[in-house]
Amino acid sequence: MEQAAPLGDRSDEGRSRTMRRRTFLTAVAFGSIIGRSVSAQEIVPPQPQRVLFTITGINARTNAESLGTLLSALVANAVPVNLVVDSGDSPTPLWQGSEIGRLLARYFESFPGLIDVVAWCPDLGQEAPYQAARAAQKVRQSLVDILYGPSGPGLSRQPLLSIACKSPLDSPAASATLSAGFRTVIALPDNGLPVEARLDLQGVLSLLGGEVLRVEEAATALSRNLPGLQRHFIFAAGDVTRTATDVLFAAARDIGRILKAAALDLSMVSDLASAVQMRTDGGFRRRVVLHLLEPTPADPLAMAHLAALQDMLRAEKILFSTGPDITGSIAAGTGDLSYWVPLAIVKSDRPDQGLMLGTFAKEPLSLALPGSVAADDMRFGVVVKPVVGGRRITGLAAQAELNIPVLAYFGAVGEEPFPDQRDLETLEDGVLLVAASALSEPALRTAFLHAIRPIVARTETRMMSLATYCAETLPQDLLLPTLLLTRAKRLKPVPPATGILSAERAELLEDAQSAWAYFSDNTIRSTGLCPATMTLGTRPSADFLAASMWEIGSHVNALIAAVDLGLIPDEDFADRIKRLLRTVERASRKRLVLPPETINAQSGKGTTRFNSFDTGRLMISLGRLNRHRLAPAGLDALVASWDFAQVIIDRRLHSYRGKQMIEDFASNYTDYVAAGMRLWGFDVASPFDDFARVATADDEARLLAATVAFGPLGAEPSLLYLIEMEPSPSASFLADCLDALQSRLAKESGVPAAASETPLDRFPWFTYQGYDLSKFTDPWIVQFAGEDGTTVTDISGTSLRAISSKAAYLWHAVRPNAYSTRLIDSLRHQARTKSGFKSALYFTAQTATTNYADLNTNAVILQSIAHILTKG
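Predicted structure:
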């Protein structure tokens, strides 16, 4: 696979794009400041203090007459002002035909440089980057609908470059708004705060702080000389509504008088928020993609025209990208042009640098169609859509597709080849889309170059490929690569349905015989239970006699699998189940009439503690048993005899240990356990209750965030869920995620692996292993219980990483593929014995736990094989 390069390493872009302006134009209100060059020899005076004026809280309740009065007065006095518009849902939301909507659109279009409309996204500042990007896209769409109407072309002459939120503002959230076309984020305080301007590595400027006051107080405040490069005066629309007309006129006049006097000696200048960063050394980085649509290779003449255009662009060192064209008219909206762009993570030496994405420079783009991504392609990537008339929907959409507005479309034959020059002069990011057939003549190609040269020449503009645009503008969310990797499955070929070959069936049955031997050899007849772990060898011995309810639930599942696979007769199954259930019932008759935390497999005595997670697994196994053709009588009565009311408090399960109830809710096991309790009619809450539907990438992103907050993702319980109960949307997606991660790691390392909780044959003896979804390049982590009971994350290296035998078979049962097939074949040779499967295979050493086996491993292997051969 071609190595991804850092986005900064581009020989064609060596010249600086940094804007060198330090002076300010006093006549900024009457013209666009984009594209005005400054001589390198210019004498630079001291920087004047920048002053911003912002009116917040403009909504359907704002008085249009009062707001119009103030705006007309500010415009007349050449005072730029930012208008923060609340387009969100409310009892009376703003709409395009409303009086306020018409007022905003009229001033926004009529007074560029003086009036800027700013989107309002109150909680943006504390959102994770993905959610911030999505929130920014939604408010942009709502605001464009108010200004221009949802049914219009969606193309405004004035760009929407600024968004505002409540303070505080996290830098990653601010950076994420770039995907929606925003370049400035204003964090508005409830009360006055010092003003700070912060420019990030993506070119997004955050303006923090300001002075909250009434309009009539602004002139007095402005007259006071305060230190600092910026001042920000914030007015509330509600105050404007309650202020008399003559007071508004006088306040605007006084502000204009002070600014005019200050402009003479360049001590102070007022500007719009969207223009501030253009006045600094940070530079205004406008991103423009030049993308050429490839004709069909079957048309050699059209291919020759494309080659000629490419040569002309290379000669002028203009960066571009190419990709297949589609059938249908892009301009007319009858064709849906979308590409899959593979991405990679680039390592950064900067500790403050978050997720940094790179591209595959020589990678040809493919249309985002089912089957377009190879089955063995384990890269993550994004679906990108150049959209004609797409400024309304610019940004990351609900299915994690990146919409990029087409600034100009040089279309196919029969369509207008050259757009209005104003479209090329817009300040917004976007793509210039070129169909080779539109430039079939040398004169047309020359005219095209003439049309785009002004854009290329601008110091604030960076030309780039479509892939680079995606890498630079996507939100820097640590969970994004995992999300996109999992979603790539939708673009891969659907594996053909194949039956199980007789040789494979025979191998699986031999595996099942080995796993069953653990139970047939080690079940203690008097209790019907098995020791939790065993040392194998010529004389197997029990290492740990205490069996938890998790393990007893696994034992029940093993018995179901054994009888379903024909390993034991019905009579033997009934006898074994009867003895096991009798022991559990007797051990439950303690002060808490509930299944105990553990039962001694030899004596049948239980503890006084209760573990909700382990009991949840037991309840799932009993539910499966109750639906089985050999279900014993009395199961309903047994479950009804348990006093769960003591441990279900406010719909949340609790464990009982140390003489106190301990809530068990914030865990990746809770949803699995809650589903088990619901099988028996108990109303138990789950942290995943909000994921009854996982229909969009937004849902998936929230689910990943919830999962990583609780800990690593392993085969248990998400894969167990799918073979034991009706699949849930959350468990199904997490299984896809696990499958994608393990397949990717297998391809990279050459060694398939599967992680889950597993016993080991050395300290710390038992580990919880899985994948940290926020650490895409090296997600496998190992955790264990420390001496004080706290969770310890292993940092000693990879020596404790162990391939779980049961996780491998679970993977093969739920999401079989070439890697899972290779893995279970390896385990057959290294972990399978006549007395059961060894618990794990150390990943680095590729050696199995020495003569060490456990109940859970062999039970889950039996379950998995039964699922494969009988489909549960």
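Summary: Confidence is low (pLDDT under 50) at residues 1-42, 278-282.
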